[in-house]
Amino acid sequence: MPTGARIEFVRLTEVPLPVVMAMLNEPRNARHMPLSAEFSEELAAHWVQGKDGQWALHGYGPWAILVDGEFAGWGGFQHEENGADFALVLLPEQWGRGAEITRVALDRGFDELGLDEVIIALPFTRNPTRVVARFGFVPDGEVSYCGSSFRQYRLSRDVWTAVKVARFKANP
């Protein structure tokens, strides 16, 4: 997939609810999301408000992601007991943009939001170790959310900075 797309992050409340609801109910995404459910309009509205409410409580939260002005999915940093958890869920036609979007989001998390560390929790249906290592994430045990187990990985601001410097030296 070509790079150089215009990636924007906006509040989830700025995207029409039916668009968000369609993404939440996308069956190809649900197979990797053990906590997902069938979203009615009421449940989707509650979900959007809950995600958006994290901004007021914690100073960060998930965004709606736009690629060249079109809704591509949601992602960002969710407050969890053990840290700022990076999540990214894209529409299937945008799956090839995950790395590009992740780089932009991590830059914003560390540079603009002032996060010192970021965690990710990925279900056991995925084998992400090599992919997340490219960003500098290291294994950090397992966590459980709502009775489901996840692999956890952690990334510090310093490691992210080193990864970016190394990438620039390799591709000036």
TrEMBL record:
UniProt-listed Pfam families: Acetyltransf_3
Enzyme Commission (EC) number: 2.3.-.-
Superkingdom in the source lineage: Bacteria
Enzyme class: transferase
Database matches in InterPro entries: Acyl_CoA_acyltransferase (IPR016181), GNAT_dom (IPR000182)
Residues forming coiled coils: none
Domain N-acetyltransferase residues, every copy: 7-166
Keyword hit for Magnesium: no
GO terms for MF: acyltransferase activity
Name of this protein: GNAT family N-acetyltransferase
